[in-house]
Description:
Blueprint: H1 9-17, H2 21-43, H3 46-62, H4 73-91, H5 98-101, H6 107-127, H7 132-143, H8 148-155, H9 159-178
Helix pairs in contact: 2-3, 2-4, 2-6, 3-4, 6-9, 7-9, 8-9
Pfam families: Sigma70_r2 (PF04542), Sigma70_r4_2 (PF08281)
Keywords: Sigma factor, Transcription, Transcription regulation
Domain RNA polymerase sigma-70 region: 27-94
Amino acid sequence: MKDVFPYSPAQVTEAFRNRDIQIFQELYKAYSEELYLLAHHWVKDSDLARDIVHNLFVHLWEKADQVIIEGQVKHYLFRAVSNRSLNELKRRKRHVGEELLQFQADEQSFHHMADYVLFQRELMQHLQGLPPRCREIFLLSRIHGLEPAEIASQLNISLNTVYFQLSIALKSLRVSLLGKKKL
Length: 183
């Protein structure tokens, strides 16, 4: 996967040193969404994921004169968000599984995470096309991990409605996501 950000690591490092707000803003616009999806993958909390990405960019701005980016800018940012996410999980003393502890900074791991982020982006774009209630039920089930009975109780709807809405969402996802890619 090619990095489409128009500036080289050396140019970004120099822009940080010069406090070039335009390049900093372009960097944020180019990567903040993908970084949020990556942080959310690790911490499973939307607000915390947003905070991690925000704090990374604040840190980059505050420590601009000390930042040296080697390799692709995207790799640097992905690694920084992954490290910050893992540190936050440790700080909060959440269960940190083997998958997180053994995460490697090699090219294959990067591509795996990049694929995950791209898939999450495509999934979220598709979910925006679902009816609001259907989308809400799907997110509560698949993203927040609630059981159908919990969703029914929380939304004050029948269990059959939950199952029906989930089937609509899953069928729609199958058609749009798998229809493009022959397995």
